[in-house]
Amino acid sequence: MDAIRVLIADDHAIVRMGLAALLESDDDIVVVGEAEDGAAAVRKALRLKPDIVIMDIMMPEMDGIAATKAIKEKLQGTHVLILTTSTVSDDLARAIRAGADGIVTKATANNKLLAAIRSVASGNRAIPPEVTERIALDPPVKQLTERQLDILTSIARGLSNGDIAKQLGIRTDSVCEHLDTIYAKLGAANRSEAIAIALRKHLLKI
Amino acid sequence: MKSLYICLPAIAVGLRLLAAPDGAPAIVNARELDASLYDGRTDKRPFAFEALVSFPSRKINGSFALEDATGTTRLYDRAFWPTNKLLAGDRIIVRGFVEHASDGNNYATATNIVLLAHEQPPTPTQATFDDINAGKFINRVISMEGVVLDSFRDEIDPRFAFLVLTDGRETVYVSLSHSEADGDCLAHLLGARVRVSGLCTDYRHKLARQALGFDISIDGLSAVEIVSQPPDDPFDVPMLHERTTLIHQSSNNAYKRLKIHGKVIATWNRNRMIVETSAGEFSNVRLAESMLPEIGQFVEVVGLPETDFYRWNLARARWRDASGISIPSKPPLQISAKGLLVDKSGHPMFNAMLHGQTVRLRGIVQRLPTGDGDGRMLLDCDGFSVAIDAGSTPESLRGLERNSTIEVCGVCVMETEVWSVHTPFPHIEACFIVVCGPDDVHVLKRPPWWTVGKLAGIVFSLLSVLTAFVVWNRMLQRLVDKKGRQLFKEQIASASSNLRFEERTRLAVELHDSLSQNLTGISMQIDAAERQLSRRPEKTLAHLGIASRTLDSCREELRNCIWDLRSQALEEHDMNKVIRMSLLRQAEGCELHVRFSIPRRRLSDNTVHCLIRIIRELATNAVRHGKARHVRVAGAIDSDKLIISLSDDGIGFDPDNRPGPSDGHFGLQGVYERIRRLNGTFSISSTPGNGAKVKMVIPIHLGEVQNGCD
Known about the structure:
Chain A is of the alpha/beta class. Chain A has ten helices and five strands.
């Protein structure tokens, strides 16, 4: 049986090193490459055609979810295993939607990680019950539009409705309407709550 | 049988009296009872004795007189006995108590009356005017004779009327029940000689308990016996003339009706008038009834003469129309208030010579008459106030306005005290001018529109509007302040919750980015080491070494994190200060030059934290590995980019062969990762021996400009 060829995509060098060391300690697994952001991961995956890409979600340039999508679209034979510290249901749900074959959180014991890699490599899905439960308990919010995200970002930066209207070139009334829609989608009562929810669900980044 | 009928109740009463709960009566005869009424004691004392009713009252709850061998007295019955059934001559046993009333008097009240027998009433005692006025026959039934001088109704209790009897020297009042003296039907007795029999009673001062006077209560008109009829013509009395002697010199004329004849020149106050007599006197007349003659009418007036020292006046008078020769009226005198009210030397004094004169006076209306012509108008004449009476023509003063200048023409009237021995020179009590019709009042000048009152009114209304405005404004301001404060508080609360939230999020991101990842890495290295132990033991050591160094770096990271949480450095507003304070530990032993021309408020907290971490790492490297003595940090903003450079004078290194993560050096790797997360770029230039220079370019968001501003 051939060794499982693995590409590691994580923006933290220490994690990459640790992961490589762990995987190298298994004779069945070969680390064929490392990528420090999403774009590099896609590039290297296309070039190396690994069996498995171990993908972090939060990365610069292109996040893990977009990279997963790109890889799954272009490479049928490559499986993507998401390895993340995130426990945000929205992230997890988006990752699954993007086509990830498995999800392992970084808090998971290392032998389980290895088991997950083997399972995914043999064509199974490895989504642990705690992840599905998490998604079920905290359903992801409705998708916000670009404009709504812009407005949300602006209010998170402390801009007033008038400032936002000026910046986006729309009327203040429209900003209010957008805000109402945003509150409805997020289930928030006011600005602070909306920002809090958005940050918790990684819709916004500070 | 009859005696038994009489005796039985008497015995019964006697027994009841003996068994009285009040104990033995303190008062046992009429004299003691009478004395108890005036002794001033305030305790309640019972009385009981046998007496003869000498004068029963016709009043409900009225008093009746008793006499026994010791004397006479009067007591009240409070509805225990139908008193009006008692007759003069009833012999009774009476029981009751003497009580101090709130009006200051003692009253004897009968509670039990037992009729014993009816006897012949006591014979009235013949009395003279002197006897009566000397108080000789108090509570005794008397009989006396006199001429009816006057008759009038009781003003306080209209159920009663009075006859005034005189013997020519003195007078005595006789009171009788009104029901038998309807209207003025007593007037027919005027001038008649009559005999009356009744009870002589006294009036006492309530508190001083002194006798003030005496009158005779009679049963009614039936107790008046006409001795000689009055004259056929009540106006057939002697004329009052100038030579009429003053009262006190000869009492012969004192209580005699006298007559004047003349023209009415002024009337006022319903029953007052001035009559200009044929002798040229101006006599004041007080009529017995409120029926005034016309002004200018010739009248005969009969009344009781009284003098005020200046002239003879008539009181209790009656008048009838008479013919007369018209006296040519004199033209009105133009007078001043000063001439009326002040004497030549300037002392206040009424000019009595003006009494009855028709005068003309100018002044400013000071006060209008009140009510329906009852009050007098006050006229301000050169600072003096003169009263103007509308007389019998209230319409004369109607329609006048305050502060208008008017001229009045009217009769000047002085009212004086009645002259008596005790007032040898009577005071003038009032002085006023009586106008006789609207023609006597001329408005010379209307009041100016800006009277003091109107001005005050305008000022007042302006002030009230102003006050209302100010109050309204205040209220509004308070409301706005309150709302504002509330809003402010809410904003503060939300801002602080935002701040706390931001801080928490930032901390979470930081822990995630560094510590959590590092720990994951360490855990993997240790696992790898464990797994390699059996297969390739030589690799184990390398894994453990990396894990150990990562742990070191973690510890350093944690220390910095805690340091930042504790220190105020990141709260500073000046970036230079922020950097200096943050690098206190790392820059030990070397000189730090900081030149940051970036205002703190243009950077978000997250950016500042990242910058501090980066600069701290680079500075640590320069001091620890480069042995630098001087470290320079500079920062500036170029449109939407932060440009930060850091240079040192350390030993330098070869950028191509610098130690990396694989050698266990994660510092630069961390810096690199952080800058990537800020979407920035990073370059290092160094040659061995010449120190190192690091340049970073980090884009800043447009939003960050506003961030921190509000």
